[in-house]
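I would like you to sit down with the pair of lines that follows and say whether tokens and residues agree.
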Amino acid sequence: MKAILSKLRPSKRLVVILATAFAVSAASGGAAVYVGRDRLAAHLSEPSASGLECTTLRTLKLDHRGQRWIRMHVKTDRAGGPDRVRTALRVVGALAGKEQADLYQVVVLDAAGPEDRASVRGAAIGAEVLFAPGPQSVKGMDEPFRASYNDGAANPDGMFHGKVVSLGLDEVQTIMAKMDDRSLCIDPTAAEAQAEGAEAPVAPKSSDHPAASAEAHGGH
């Protein structure tokens, strides 16, 4: 029996080889787990193809020399330049689908940026998109879209001091083709008006025959 067991006992060299193989296998399995986690984390951290959530600051509807222009100022919270311009492109597309105009303009500001209309210029603008369905009829519009963003981060006052990056028409079309969301920004004013309308008491409907109604209540 001892002779048989001694024959079945693996050599030291074989033990070392097997141990090394198992170690390599375990390490590669662990590496696969970590690679999988890294890929998942990278996927979750990818920017949204449709930009970010935003809040409408104001919407201006202007009559400019017989043309209808719609200008919208929106805010995002600490967003990067590419995310800001994607947001603006999504909103301008949603706006064009909702209302008819000759020119649409969406300006993206930082959440900490200025509130008043006169201050929406220069370093306050994080991204801007102009869209003219018929560019030949709008002065200064050679193509349907003009899109740009500031590549700097907003400072505590919501101002951008980076370089302005302009997008070509092909880039705009590629971005918009990938969008899976076509929604406008949250509009606090509209939400408040809707809430107030829901809370307002409903006035009782008057009778079509007031005399008959009075007789019904007064004559017993």
